[in-house]
Amino acid sequence: MSTQDHNNRNLLENRRYLRKNSTSAEVLLWTQIRSRQIEGVKFRRQFSIGPYILDFYSPEIRLCIELDGKDHFTSSGDRYDYKRTEFLKNEHNIVTIRFENKDIFNSLASVLEEIRRTIASIKTKNIYREKKCFCIGHTPSPSGLPLPQGKK
């Protein structure tokens, strides 16, 4: 993985804008995961890899956490999310977990527990060996059409 792909200078202003204009769900989750509060893992906000800006990213364990608002629940948003998740997985071996914004407000404890479980799996190398992408909550599909209930 080339560090040249990380924090592309061309995306610097976009990253700054996104940090200054975070959604309330991003702000709430950030208060819970910043400063190594969760399993001692350091996360960065609005970190870019390739052409994409990730909501939260831990370079040390290659974990991306994405929060999905209403823009993600369109067929074009779904296709974009799928393409991005596949790029991160296949080109950079990054695990992506996704949550809907409403999950942050309605079940924050469950979200944090899922993040902890994913971190534990990564630390024991289970996810890297299998090269799977775990998407929690809203899972993008390659067609842009919703997946059948219960399918990921």
Descriptive notes:
With 152 residues, the chain is an alpha+beta fold. 42% of the residues lie in helices and 16% in strands. It is built from six helices and four strands; from the N terminus they run ααβββαβααα. The protein has helices at residues 12-20, 24-33, 75-92, 101-106, 108-123, 126-130, and strands at 44-49, 52-58, 63-68, 95-100. A four-stranded mixed sheet has the order 1-2-3-4, with helices on both faces. Strand 2 (52-58) and strand 3 form a beta hairpin. It is globular and about 35 Å long. The relative contact order is 0.15. Mean pLDDT is 83; it is low at 127-134 and 145-149.
Write the layout of secondary structure elements.
Layout: H1 12-20, H2 24-33, E1 44-49, E2 52-58, E3 63-68, H3 75-92, E4 95-100, H4 101-106, H5 108-123, H6 126-130
Parallel strand pairs: 3-4
Antiparallel strand pairs: 1-2, 2-3
What's the quick description here?
The chain is of the alpha+beta class and 152 residues long. The protein contains six helices and four strands; from the N terminus they run ααβββαβααα. It has a four-stranded mixed β-sheet with strand order 1-2-3-4, with helices on both faces.
Features of the shown structure:
152 residues, alpha+beta, 4-stranded mixed sheet, 6 helices
Number of helices: 6
Low-pLDDT segments, ≥5 res: 127-134, 145-149
How much of the sequence lies in strands comes to 15-25%
Q: First CA to last CA: what distance?
A: 27 Å
Element order, helices and strands? HHEEEHEHHH
Q: Assembly state here?
A: single chain
Rg, Cα atoms, Å: 15 Å
Number of strands: 4
Helix percent band: 40-55%
- Average pLDDT value? 83
Report the sheet with the most strands, covering strand number, pairing sense and barrel closure. Answer: 4 strands, mixed
Strand order of the largest sheet: 1-2-3-4
Structural class: alpha+beta
How would you sum up the global shape?
A: globular
